[in-house]
UniProtKB/TrEMBL annotation, chain A:
One of its GO terms (cellular component) is plasma membrane. It comes from the Bacteria. The keyword Plastid does not apply. Pfam families: BPD_transp_2. One of its GO terms (molecular function) is transmembrane transporter activity. It is a multi-pass membrane protein. The keyword Iron does not apply. The chain crosses the membrane at residues 12-32, 39-60, 66-88, 95-113, 151-167, 198-220, 275-293. It is found in: Cell membrane. Keywords: Cell membrane, Membrane, Sugar transport, Transmembrane, Transmembrane helix, Transport. The lineage of its organism: Bacteria, Pseudomonadati, Pseudomonadota, Alphaproteobacteria, Hyphomicrobiales. InterPro entries: ABC_transp_permease (IPR001851). PANTHER family: ABC TRANSPORTER PERMEASE PROTEIN, SUGAR ABC TRANSPORTER INTEGRAL MEMBRANE PROTEIN-RELATED. This is Simple sugar transport system permease protein.
Automatic annotation (TrEMBL), chain B:
This is Nucleoside ABC transporter membrane protein. It comes from the Bacteria. It holds the Pfam family BPD_transp_2. One of its GO terms (molecular function) is transmembrane transporter activity. GO terms for cellular component: plasma membrane. It is a multi-pass membrane protein. The keyword Acetylation does not apply. The keyword Transmembrane applies. It is found in: Cell membrane. Keywords: Cell membrane, Membrane, Transmembrane, Transmembrane helix.
TrEMBL record, chain C:
Keywords: ATP-binding, Nucleotide-binding. The lineage of its organism: Bacteria, Pseudomonadati, Pseudomonadota, Alphaproteobacteria, Hyphomicrobiales. Residues 6-238, 254-497 form the ABC transporter domain. This is Nucleoside ABC transporter ATP-binding protein. It comes from Cohaesibacter marisflavi. It comes from the Bacteria. Belongs to the ABC transporter superfamily. The keyword Nucleotide-binding applies. Coiled coil: none annotated. Pfam families: ABC_tran (PF00005). One of its GO terms (molecular function) is ATP hydrolysis activity. PROSITE patterns: ABC_TRANSPORTER_1, ABC_TRANSPORTER_2. InterPro entries: AAA+_ATPase (IPR003593), ABC_carbohydrate_import_ATPase (IPR050107), ABC_transporter-like_ATP-bd (IPR003439), ABC_transporter-like_CS (IPR017871), P-loop_NTPase (IPR027417).
Length: 310, 356, 502
């Protein structure tokens, strides 16, 4: 065990954790906004998986990470649209919709990937490089962890305050929260609940798709089934454990990412505890977090309640 | 702007039409998928049906494939009727197979009539305990059951991976296969039709279907399950211990899922390995939901999906279409069925939008 | 002559075969207070929904200052200066007062909180409303929330203001203040429609339009009419009010001693409550909504557990027992929210009638006894005049009154010693209300101890032997219903202690 505690390994764990956190953080922030609008979207895992596959196909085809990211965002939005049609327009139970969508996404991506590959070997590409921020990256320890990361990691971290301000200070942010707290209130003000819920879902699912793209571009050189590996679910847990607040959600995401990074390093270093037990850590921790952090005071009052107008 | 109002009652005819429409739409979309992948739609489907229903042997084989799906489908029905959105069927099935295998390690040379019932019982206890853990987390700590079941699915799969890849259950000299040694004859489920490995698990599944139906319809416990799903508050106000009901529901659901694991491992494969089980729990969710959360509905859906599963192998040999078409098709069908089940409850009108 | 602010001509609105509004015609002038007076179900709420764009009338015309309007959404109504103050507040509890008010009137990317707050403070000052714009609504008292609800409408300079039962949540002081604000609005030239079923409020209006069964049965100047005449118009006959029979009271049946129930925040939901209810007594619970009525009923029924104190039924301590055990001792409980707490919508009448008894009386050999269920339902449907095609009808398809009869049928059977009824008549029409009151009197005659919480003070005074008044979870006093009056109860409801306890 002590091998894991050497300064170099700890440093390496933290640097990798920031990258891993980016994937979950995008999804968690997207889910946070979606849930604040009252939609309990359980389809995050499936949305991310679709984002992964689309990013992979575009990256393998064009070699452009930017195009791959844009395509994954688009794929995420299509997923959001489907989930929105089911939950907002048809008012299918939010949980049922999410579960159904995940199963659809897992089946579709598998089929798409297998028919794309055919009998041959799946194409691969080299992962994208980090973008050190000049000056800041040279700060000891912190510089490596915070300022020698991928461009999308910076964007994800900056999104935290941006989304916090959006929800508190902007007109549309206030209206989005009102949709989750009391949709009837919005309607009485003459504002459409559905518009805000669709917008939140499109935005949230786009971010989740982007998270999937980052997973493909920075960590994997080729797609494999179920590559998202529960990260979408961890994002949902992060939102709950973060009491629906952006900064606390980010803290929960970091815990998962560090544990995940720890597991990868444990495998590499060769610890005498079987590596499978390390791999369980983020999932066990997620349940532990939900047991420990019991406050749900930030939960939108009408989260997951399909809204039927008069 | 689409305006939707609730209907008072839904006629049987409207329901049948809606479900047929969902089925047609599902097949249409699947055809589109096949066409997009560049294969021939007609060839694909005909190979699929040939493989599923083409001969007596194929049909019996379809029943074998349907057996675990009946169990996980029923597990879904019981939990979802109580509006407990467990997706732990997968993990509970693994837990069941593992508990059954664990029991078999202590059964040595016990005769089959003793060994098999003990294995089945042990498996059911294992699945039930895992289910109850999620039920307890839900009622005691308000941990959402979807999340706890998903997370425990991953934990269980990693645990099995440890046991089989270098851990205590690894078959000697076969670390790379991630499987146990072959099971002794006295641990195997007796066969009904030996050529195709149609085992007694299938009869057990039919029995379980009838039992689930009877419990839901005729017993006070079934009454509580349905009331729990519809209005837990009213149940609490009338003095029913809701936490205990949740525990029992999850135990039953877990035990049913466990039977899926037993029938695959002890009835078909004769050794414990992860990848023969993977996905059967999730497909069970689709089976239960497409079956309208009715035990007999789930039975029909399971038979259909078992046939598709069975036919997909044949299809992949005869055409370029990968067997992965079947999970894709199941997902598509599920979404259309879910939409249909809701649409029949509403009257849909188009009206001018004037909202901002 | 200028056009009236609002002119409604021959407005009709039906839901299926139910005529909610039929040929409604009336007008309101600028600076006038018109009262819409009628029973529950007379069509008042439908009419206000038509005037604010939530419903669209089937036929008829709505004209604002002489211009015909077609309102198709709440946005339309707001744009035309029609404001609605809802009976059940439509506020976001998690938002501050200011946030609740600015939503919908801001157009920029960022909310300009500074200037919005300045404007809100100015409005508060001019109408004499004392409220902190930055307080979160969920931290406000129910009365303060009513002011927040009113401010939502005042913020956008309404020409026409519709107030839907605004005093239901206000104490006596609050009501007086509301009418001072209304006077100020009238002076500013705002036309006001007040929807109410309180006669004393009606008499403060300039004119009153009486609704019965969806139609306007008459419009009177208040100066030229009397409360008696209005009541006759509203009910269509002379009102015969049931009043308590003076049966002798027996021994104490239900007793609470220093019962305290914890709340979510600092303040307990119930604070040191002691009283007892005798055999054959109807004990009323009065109070502004949300002052502890629900926790009181729930703690007696065993749904919640007290933190301290003792509750006993016929000298047996029940505060440590569960719902089932207490119920089996002879306690019936009619909960406040009939569909959320009392019934399962997706279940049939038969099934709802056995809820709670499904493991006892109605189980045989481990299975449900369907024959007994059907017989039970048939008998109770007849006995309690539940209007339903059969016992297999889903409760979700029943009207509020019939749904309440199902609960009544189930709970009256259980209540051989104690009957708890929380707001049993809310939202029901007079026929059902009379019936429910009759049921309570029957129980009284059988020697049952009845506890009823209601927001209808006049009903309480007519029904009860004694009335206890709750304020912020404390029992402010118990008054003799024969000797008390609305003023005295009103003061207690506002938190003023009683000088002489009964």
């Amino acid at each position: 065990m002590s091998e894991l505690l050497s300064p170099e390994i700890l440093m390496s764990i933290m640097v990798a954790a920031m990258g891993g956190a980016t994937v979950i953080l995008f999804a968690a922030l997207g889910e946070l906004v979606t849930e604040r609008a009252g939609i309990w979207n359980m389809g995050v895992e499936g949305t991310m998986l679709v984002g992964c596959l689309v990013a992979y196909l575009v990256m393998a085809g064009t070699g452009s990470p930017i195009l791959a990211s844009i395509a994954a965002i688009g794929a995420g939005m299509v997923a959001g649209l489907i989930i929105g049609f089911m939950t907002v327009t048809l008012r299918v139970d939010h949980f049922v919709t999410g579960l159904g969508f995940n199963l659809l996404a897992s089946g579709l991506t598998l089929f798409w990937f297998r028919s794309y590959v055919g009998g041959g070997k799946p194409p691969s590409y080299s992962t994208i490089d980090t973008v050190p921020i000049p000056g800041l990256a040279d700060i000891p320890i912190l510089g490596q962890i915070l300022f020698n990361q991928h461009l999308l990691t910076y964007i994800a971290l900056l999104s935290v305050p941006v989304i916090a301000v959006f929800l508190r200070r902007t007109t549309f942010g206030l209206e989005t929260r009102a949709a989750g707290e009391n949709p009837q209130f919005l309607e009485a003000k003459g504002l459409s609940v559905a518009t805000r819920q669709y917008a939140a879902l499109l935005f949230g699912s786009a971010l989740t798709g982007l998270g999937g793209a980052f997973l493909m571009l920075a960590f994997a050189d080729q797609f494999r089934p179920d590559i998202s590996g529960g990260r979408g679910w961890l994002a949902i847990v992060a939102v709950i454990a973060g009491n629906w607040k952006p900064l606390r959600t980010m803290a929960a995401v970091l815990i998962f990412a560090i544990l995940d990074s720890l597991a990868v390093h444990a495998q590499g270093v060769g610890v005498d505890v079987p590596y499978q037990f390390f791999l369980m850590l983020p999932y066990v921790a997620s349940i532990g977090l939900l047991i420990l952090i019991r406050s749900r005071s930030g939960q939108p009052a009408k989260l997951g309640v399909p809204y039927l107008r008069h | 702007m689409i305006e939707i109002t609730r209907r008072q009652t839904v006629g049987y005819r409207a329901r049948i039409v809606a479900y047929l429409l969902a089925l047609v739409m599902g097949f249409a979309c699947t055809s589109l998928l096949i066409w997009l992948s560049g294969a021939s739609v007609m060839e694909g489907f005909s190979a699929l049906f040939e493989g599923a229903f083409g001969s007596e042997e194929a049909m019996l084989q379809s029943l074998v494939a349907a057996t675990p799906l009946i169990f996980t489908g029923l597990a879904t029905v019981i939990a979802y009727r109580a509006e407990i959105w467990s997706i732990g069927q997968e993990g509970q099935m693994f837990a069941g197979a593992m508990s059954g295998y664990f029991a078999s390690l202590y059964l040595g040379g016990a005769p089959m009539v003793v060994a098999v019932p003990v294995i089945i019982l042990a498996a059911m206890i294992g699945g039930a305990l895992l289910g109850m853990l999620c039920g307890w987390l839900k009622s005691r700590f308000a941990v959402n059951e979807i999340i706890s079941t998903v997370m425990l699915n991953y934990v269980i799969v990693y645990f099995l991976s440890y046991l089989l890849a270098g851990g205590p259950w690894t078959a000697e000299g076969s670390t790379s296969y991630h499987q146990t040694a072959l099971l002794a004859d006295n641990f195997r489920l007796p066969l009904i039709v030996s050529d195709v490995k149609l085992h007694i698990g299938f009869l057990l599944a039919i029995l379980a279907t009838v039992l689930c139906w009877g419990i839901l319809k005729f017993t006070p416990f079934g009454f509580e399950i349905r009331a729990l799903g519809a209005n837990p508050t009213a149940l609490r106000f009338k003095g029913v211990n809701v936490a205990r009901t949740i525990l029992i529901v999850m135990a039953v659901s877990g035990a049913l899922s466990a039977l899926a694991g037993v029938s695959e491992i002890f009835g078909v494969n004769y050794r414990l390995k992860g990848d023969v089980l993977t996905g059967l729990g999730f497909t069970g969710i689709i089976v239960g939901m497409i079956g309208g959360l009715n035990p007999f509905g789930a039975l029909i859906a399971a038979l259909l999906f078992g046939a598709l599963e069975n036919g997909s192998l044949y299809m992949s040999v005869l055409s370029d279409i990968p067997p992965a078409l079947v999970p894709a098709m199941q997902g598509i069908l599920l979404l259309f069925f879910l939409s249909a089940s809701v649409i029949v409850r509403y009257r849909v009108r188009i009206r001018r939008a004037s909202y901002v | 002559m200028t056009s009236p602010t609002l002119e409604v001509t021959a407005l009709c609105k039906s839901f299926g075969s139910v005529r909610a509004n039929h040929d409604v015609t009336f007008s309101v002038d600028a600076g006038e207070l018109l009262c819409l007076f009628g029973e529950n179900g007379a069509g008042k709420s439908t009419l206000s929904a038509c005037l604010t764009g939530l419903y669209r009338p089937d036929s008829g015309e709505i004209a604002l200052e002489g211009t015909p309007l077609r309102l198709s959404s709440a946005a339309d109504a707001i744009r035309h200066g029609i404001g609605l103050v809802h009976q059940h507040f439509v506020l976001v509890p998690d938002f501050t007062v200011l946030e609740n008010i600015v939503v919908g009137s801001e157009t920029g990317l960022f909310v300009d909180f500074a200037s919005a707050e300045a404007r809100l403070r100015q409005i508060c000052e001019s109408y004499g409303i004392d409220i902190d714009p930055n307080a979160r609504v969920e931290d406000l008292s129910v009365g303060e929330q009513q002011w927040a609800e009113l401010l939502k409408a005042l913020y956008f300079d309404a020409k026409l203001l519709i107030l839907d039962e605004p005093t239901a949540t206000l104490d006596v002081e609050g009501s007086k203040k509301l009418f001072r604000i209304i006077d100020k609005l009238k002076a500013d030239g705002v036309a006001i429609i007040l929807i109410t079923h309180f006669l004393e409020e009606v008499m403060q209006a300039d004119r009153v339009a009486v609704l019965r069964q969806g139609a306007v049965v008459g419009i009177k100047k208040t100066a030229e009419t009397s409360p008696e005449e209005l009541t006759r118009m509203m009910v269509g006959r002379d009102l015969k009010r049931q009043t308590r029979q003076s049966t002798p009271m027996g021994t104490a049946r239900l007793a609470l001693e220093s019962v305290t129930v914890e709340g979510l925040g600092e303040r307990p939901d119930l604070d040191d409550i002691s009283f007892c209810v005798h055999e054959g007594e109807i004990f009323g619970i009065a109070g502004v909504a949300g002052n502890g009525q629900r926790p009181l009923m729930e703690v007696i029924a065993g749904v919640r557990k007290p933190k301290s104190g003792i509750i006993s039924l016929d000298d047996t301590v029940i505060s440590s027992k569960g719902v089932h055990a207490i119920k089996s001792m002879g306690l019936g409980h009619i909960p406040e929210d009939r569909f959320a707490e009392g019934l399962v919508r997706d279940f049939s009448i038969e099934e709802n009638l056995i809820l709670g008894e499904h493991r006892g009386t109605f189980a045989k050999g481990g299975l449900l006894d369907f024959r007994k269920m059907a017989q039970n339902a048939k008998r109770l449907i007849a006995e309690f005049s539940i209007a339903a095609p059969s016992g297999e009808t889903l409760v979700g398809n029943l009207s509020g009154g019939n749904a309440q009869r199902v609960i009544l049928a189930r709970e009256m059977q259980l209540a051989s010693k104690v009957l708890l009824a929380n707001q049993p008549t809310r939202g029901l029409d007079v026929g059902v209300i009379d019936y429910i009151h009759q049921c309570l009197f029957n129980k009284k005659a059988e020697g049952v101890a009845v506890v009823i919480a209601s927001s209808e003070l006049e009903d309480l005074i007519a029904l009860c032997d004694r009335i206890g008044v709750l304020f912020q979870g404390r029992l402010m006093g118990i008054v003799d219903a024969r000797k008390t009056n609305l003023e005295e109860i009103g003061l207690l409801m506002a938190g003023h202690a009683l000088e002489t306890a009964v």
